[in-house]
Amino acid sequence: MSFLMSFFVIALLIIIISIFSSSSTKKTQETNVNGPPSYPLIGSILSFNKNRHRLLQWYTKLLRLSPSQTITIPLLGNRQYILKENFFNFPKGKPFTDLLGDLLGQGIFNVDGHSWSSQRKLASHEFSTRSLRSFAFEVLREEVETPDVGTTVDLQDVFKRFAFDVVCKVSLGWDPDCLDLTRPVNPLAEAFDTAAEISARRATEPLYAVWKAKRVLNVGSERRLREAIRTVHEFVSEIVRAKRKSLEIGTGQEAKQDLLSRFLASGHDSEAVRDMVISFIMAGRDTTSAAMTWLFWLLSENDDVEKKLLQEVEPLMSLGLGFEELKEMSYMKACLCEAMRLYPPVSWDSKHAANDDVLADGTRVKKGDKVTYFPYGMGRMENLWGKDCEEFKPSRWFDSEPGITEPVLKPVSPFKFPVFQAGPRVCIGKEMAFMQMKFVVGSVLSRFEIIPVSKHKPVFVPLLTAHMAGGLKVKIKRREVK
Q: Transmembrane region positions (predicted)?
């Protein structure tokens, strides 16, 4: 019965789209000043489907053409908005949580209300503890001291492996040893990659009924997703069981280290803890690696910036990078922020209106509407960043104060630069992420010259976490000591 129903739904939707596609020129277009052409019943689904493989460029173009930098994209009765302003009072909503629910379950990044609030409170406390920061810093130091992996490598792959090792050590107290290139790809890392990619591609379907039908039928990408999620859940659940047993019979020292031990000690059941740590692994596995990959490519295109960054890094490296030295790296932070402005690890994020509302520019939002803010497009708005918004200029992050020789980092509103979100859902691992990226970039840059093999501009791919298509193949040369 479910097979027939799914088949009927897909067939009906295809027929409707085909009819409107063939006769769209004859239909009366509805007025849609801030968005693409819209037609009765199907809204802007034709334009969406035509541009689904270049959504970043399409959305950015539409935003630039919109006087208010708000666009409306009706899709079969459900309108989607890309905003320039803050609207943190919108929950994620069921349509969004459906996309990631199979993988993330009831983890913090896929829930609203009391469940989110309680997990947020617990995680915020743990991230603020000095012991966790110290533990994470020691993990970083161990990983960075891993022997060189060769003279020509895919830098993106190395950073992804590194980030996965670090986040698993910090979250699970378990080392997947992904940086050992002589070993097969870790099955958990591989399953995470598959699950994240397919879950993200669900959102690019013009009609959610398509992927939902494939899930019911257990075919194609949804079949691969189910298998990958099973691997992730079973793998993490086994680590949770082993950790719980270790805490019960051990001395209790483990509880002072990784997040898993801390969450178990708080009294949560195994399934809840599994979902919680999966969310943190998902959040930390590719975000920092993506930012660092794009920064190294941008540095290779901007010698003057690389030289200035080296001038800041080298004296501090001689002291040994500690918390205080990392805090002093203001130009490093500006470079990282500028790289993430142009190539944000998370290109867009969606919420759903709990009730009817009116945005600041007068756009009316109905209950259940999807509302999306778009960091990739926001980073390319002239009215936010100036006419040079397409250029890589770390200097834009500084203010020069009278009487002060060294420029000072200026405060930038998180609603202008929402790479780490803003408001109550602002990323609680933000400072830890900057610490990690500063430590890694400083360590690599001071020891090696990174030279991209290809002269072509890389392609930005926006999945759950954005990445560089095909990776970043580079030659690594040991930097000469001057």
A: none
